[in-house]
């Protein structure tokens, strides 16, 4: 039976993006696959008073079960209220990298408030056609849609590209107009995973292309995928405790901060969370080899994740303190928005 996200206390991204574009900050989009990740996200975002986008990928749905994840997100709304003494931060439940109409529809029907249709590997016309079809369905239920133009290098949706196919500024106005999408993911040199640049390469993203895109669609919400910074202190802890991550390089925080001041209003971060958890778990295993209670290593991993997300919200994305910009909720514990 179909359920609306509104009944679950979730919000779509429309108003949040408007405020973020105007306010010069970006909303964090953090992926979750399990309880500890979700707890850390909610704890960090309530404590730093930030709106948040909870992202679920196809891989997460396969790993954890789609029904369970949806109920976890519903539980997260209640958990946030509990932590915030009844005043809930805005929470968006978003499908990350949806690749078919059927998957997007399935998520919308089960209570997601936002979906991404990533048809960027198809031809331009096929991308327009599929994205438009998803938008038509989603908008009937007031669900917001993210489309993508351009292809990130590395592995994206199990398709690997050797080099970036940068978003062409000439195409964005036409794409946004024809599809009716609410936000646009672009390719400007970010990529998924922990190995975004080769040693010796200038680790810069193409903020000049972003500026060109903004000129064509002023104020339109832009999304950056592949935006982990790969903190070197975490890589060091992993490698000092039995890990083997050679030459892991991410996107500089200064560049992300710069992008967040523009129309970039959603920044996707997953790999940094994986690194934070892995570093904490490896440390416990190395220091306490007799430990075998999962709470004794997943607990520290959750704490490390929370610290990471607080830092992102406060120092990188600038979303901290902006939870109530879009009106938000009253303090009575209801889910009006
Ligand atoms: O963009 C990819 C996200 O990091 C999700 O990764 O497909 O391994 O869950 P995943
Ligand atoms: P990272 O791998 O850089 O964290 O990117 C995550 C992402 O784009 C999720 O869609
Ligand atoms: Zn992505």
Mind explaining what this structure looks like?
The chain is α/β, with parallel strands linked by helices. It has helices spanning 14-23, 35-47, 58-64, 66-83, 101-109, 124-140, 169-179, 207-216, 232-240, 253-260, 271-287, 294-316, and strands spanning 27-31, 52-57, 91-98, 114-117, 144-149, 154-156, 159-161, 183-186, 222-224, 264-269. Strands 1-2-3-4-5-8-9-10 form an eight-stranded parallel β-barrel, surrounded by nine helices. The protein is globular. The two termini are 25 Å apart. Mean pLDDT is 95; it is low at 330-337.
Low-pLDDT runs of 5+ residues are: 330-337
Gyration radius (Cα, Å) is 19 Å
The major β-sheet equals: 8 strands, parallel, barrel
Tell me the domain tally. Answer: 1
- Which ions, cofactors or small ligands are bound in this entry? glyceraldehyde-3-phosphate, 1,3-dihydroxyacetonephosphate, zinc ion
Task: Supply the CATH superfamily name.
Answer: Aldolase class I
Gross morphology is: globular
Structural class determined from secondary elements = alpha/beta
* Strand arrangement across the biggest beta sheet: 1-2-3-4-5-8-9-10
How much of the sequence lies in strands comes to 5-15%
CATH topology name: TIM Barrel
The helix content, as a percent range, equals 40-55%
């Amino acid at each position: 039976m179909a359920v609306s996200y509104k009944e679950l206390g979730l919000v779509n991204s429309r108003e949040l993006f408007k405020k973020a574009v105007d306010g010069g900050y970006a909303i964090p989009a953090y992926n979750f696959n399990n309880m500890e990740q979700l707890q850390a996200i909610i704890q960090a975002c309530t404590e730093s008073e930030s709106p948040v986008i909870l992202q679920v990928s196809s891989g997460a749905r396969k790993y954890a079960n789609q029904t369970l994840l949806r109920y976890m997100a519903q539980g997260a709304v209640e958990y946030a209220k509990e932590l915030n003494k009844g005043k809930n931060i805005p929470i968006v439940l978003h499908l990350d990298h949806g690749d078919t109409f059927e998957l997007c529809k399935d998520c919308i029907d089960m209570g997601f408030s936002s979906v991404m249709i990533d048809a960027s590997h198809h031809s331009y016309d096929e991308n327009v056609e599929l994205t438009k079809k998803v938008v038509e369905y989603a908008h009937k239920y007031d669900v917001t849609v993210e489309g993508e133009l351009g292809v990130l290098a590395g592995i994206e949706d199990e398709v690997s590209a050797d080099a970036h196919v940068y978003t062409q500024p000439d195409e964005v106005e036409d794409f946004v107009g024809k599809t009716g999408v609410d936000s646009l993911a672009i390719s400007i040199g970010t990529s998924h995973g922990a190995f975004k640049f080769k040693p010796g390469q200038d680790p810069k993203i193409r903020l000049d292309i972003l500026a060109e895109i903004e000129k064509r669609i002023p104020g339109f919400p832009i999304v950056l995928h592949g935006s982990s910074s790969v903190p070197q202190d975490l890589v060091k802890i992993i490698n000092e405790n039995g890990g083997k991550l050679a030459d892991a390089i991410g996107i500089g925080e200064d560049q992300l901060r710069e992008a967040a001041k523009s129309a970039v209003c959603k920044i996707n971060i997953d790999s940094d969370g994986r690194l934070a958890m892995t570093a904490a778990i490896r440390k416990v295993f190395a220091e306490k080899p007799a430990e075998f209670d999962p709470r004794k290593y997943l607990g520290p991993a959750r704490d490390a994740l929370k610290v990471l997300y607080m830092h992102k919200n406060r120092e990188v994305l600038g979303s901290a303190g902006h939870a109530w910009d879009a009106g938000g909720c009253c303090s009575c514990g209801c889910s009006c928005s």
